Amino acid sequence: MAFPATRPQIDYDEDVLTLEEEQELRTLIVYNDDVNTFEHVIQTLIDVCEHEPEQAEQCTLLIHHKGKCAVKNGTYEELEPRCSAIHDRGISADIV
């Protein structure tokens, strides 16, 4: 007696797992100094960090009164060019 030829059944899972690389979020901090004007810091935050004028003004007041302010969050790769641009304008900043 001959057995009928069989093909193995393969079930394909429709779910696809996506590997997402986790990137640590950092914070860009701007520090107070006695050199730069309010207007210069405000304009820098508008130009470099894409703040709205009101947001830039609030951050600048915090920088002045508290000594520093977190002005932007993101990955190191996103923040590094902004930090460099702020330094180029003579303002002290760090990524933490």
UniProtKB/TrEMBL annotation:
- Adaptor protein ClpS core domain residues: 23-88
Source organism superkingdom: Bacteria
UniProt cross-references to Pfam families, sorted A to Z: ClpS
Q: Which SUPFAM superfamilies match?
A: ClpS-like
Protein name in UniProt? ATP-dependent Clp protease adaptor ClpS
InterPro entries according to UniProt: ClpS_core (IPR003769), Ribosomal_bL12_C/ClpS-like (IPR014719)
Query: Which GO BP terms, alphabetically?
Result: proteolysis
Q: One GO molecular function term?
A: peptidase activity
Q: Which residues form the signal peptide?
A: none
This protein's UniProt keywords: Hydrolase, Protease
